[in-house]
């Protein structure tokens, strides 16, 4: 019987988690798969030859070699200040190789809008396994996540540490100044909903209530686009199902009542590998 060995992923960062006086040596691994993404190249329609881009000076209209290119920041319209590599290096945060937890906050208190890129952490060596498991299990019982900063690719990131099954997951986050406030939007005031409509809306939410299962949802655009590419590469006729037009809503009350009468549609089974459940994530407050 031939046994296939799964290659160990390569850590993109090695360091340690620290909380109090406890230090846990860990490696950081990407939690997302980009190999399946569909990428396009721009081609010349005449002969399908790839298009090459050149760096052209706007003032002189000539191609500029990399040796003559510098970085600049436009502080006023048409006015630039040039920054050298040495200038930029002075602004970079010193990589301490430590994710120091500053606070343990309730998982449900974090707005989804702050979440960015997910990673997995694994203990480095057997001696670190005990402290790793202790932190993971303690977080799972507390319902809290660890908040701190980590330096990745010479840039400091805010991040949250949470249990994810047997693993510890680290999610980079946006800083508060990176998010726009919705106050400038024309939004309805709270508490304006009709009581009867609100009751029906809550009933509809209850009928669609379910446990979080990521395998229930499909990237239909990716699937259709991949099938379309395969058909065209084989010289076959492209067949795409027509999108259903949304029903015209005349009465909100009528729409709610009809929604409650409609049977719930179950997603098709895809046979994909079940993704690990993210602990603490489903109880978080929804983004505004």
Quick recap:
This protein is α+β, with helices and mostly antiparallel strands.
Alpha carbon gap, first and last residue: 54 Å
Total beta strand runs: 9
Remind me, CATH topology of the domain at 17-30 and 95-177?
A: Ku70, Chain: A, Domain 2
Rg of Cα set: 26 Å
**Regions with pLDDT < 50 over 5+ consecutive residues?**
1-6, 269-288
Q: Helix share of residues? A: 10-25%
**Architecture of the domain at 17-30 and 95-177, CATH level 2?**
Beta Barrel
Describe the SSE topology:
Elements: E1 13-19, E2 22-30, E3 71-76, E4 79-83, H1 85-91, E5 98-106, E6 115-123, H2 129-142, E7 144-152, E8 155-164, E9 167-173, H3 195-207, H4 220-233, H5 252-261
Parallel strand pairs: 1-5
Antiparallel strand pairs: 1-2, 2-6, 3-4, 5-7, 6-9, 7-8, 8-9
Description of the structure:
- With 288 residues, the protein is an alpha+beta fold.
- The termini are far apart.
- The strands form 2 sheets. It has a 7-stranded mixed beta barrel. Strands 3-4 form a two-stranded antiparallel sheet.
- A hairpin with a 2-residue loop joins strand 7 and strand 8 (155-164).
- The chain has a domain at 17-30 and 95-177: Ku70, Chain: A, Domain 2 (Beta Barrel).
- The protein has 5 helices and 9 strands; from the N terminus they run E-E-E-E-H-E-E-H-E-E-E-H-H-H.
- The longest helix has 14 residues, at 129-142.
List the keywords.
alpha+beta; 5 helices; 7-stranded mixed β-barrel; disordered C terminus; Ku70, Chain: A, Domain 2
């Amino acid at each position: 019987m031939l046994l296939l060995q799964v290659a160990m992923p390569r850590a993109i960062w090695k360091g340690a988690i620290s909380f109090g006086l406890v230090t846990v040596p860990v490696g950081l691994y990407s939690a997302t798969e980009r190999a399946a993404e569909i990428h396009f190249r721009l081609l010349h329609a005449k002969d399908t030859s790839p298009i090459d881009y050149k760096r052209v000076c706007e003032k002189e209209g000539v191609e500029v070699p990399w040796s003559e290119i510098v970085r600049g920041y436009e502080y006023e319209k048409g006015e630039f200040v040039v920054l050298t590599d040495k200038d930029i290096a002075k602004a970079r945060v010193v990589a301490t190789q430590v994710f120091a937890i500053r606070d343990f906050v309730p998982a449900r208190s974090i707005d989804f809008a702050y979440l960015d890129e997910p990673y997995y952490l694994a203990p480095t060596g057997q001696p670190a396994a005990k402290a790793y498991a202790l932190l993971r299990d303690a977080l799972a019982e507390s319902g809290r996540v660890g908040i701190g900063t980590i330096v990745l690719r010479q840039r400091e990131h805010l991040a949250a540490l949470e249990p994810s099954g047997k693993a510890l997951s680290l999610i980079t986050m946006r800083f508060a100044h990176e998010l726009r406030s919705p106050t400038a939007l024309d939004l309805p005031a709270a508490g304006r909903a009709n009581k009867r409509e609100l009751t029906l809306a809550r009933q509809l939410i209850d009928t669609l209530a379910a446990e979080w299962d990521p395998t229930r949802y499909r990237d239909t655009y990716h699937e259709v686009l991949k099938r379309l590419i395969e058909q065209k590469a084989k010289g076959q006729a492209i067949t795409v199902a027509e999108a259903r037009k949304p029903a015209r809503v005349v009465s909100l009350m009528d729409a709610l009542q009809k929604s409650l009468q409609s049977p719930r549609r179950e997603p098709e089974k895809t046979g994909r590998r079940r993704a690990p459940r993210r602990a603490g994530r489903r109880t978080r407050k929804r983004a505004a």
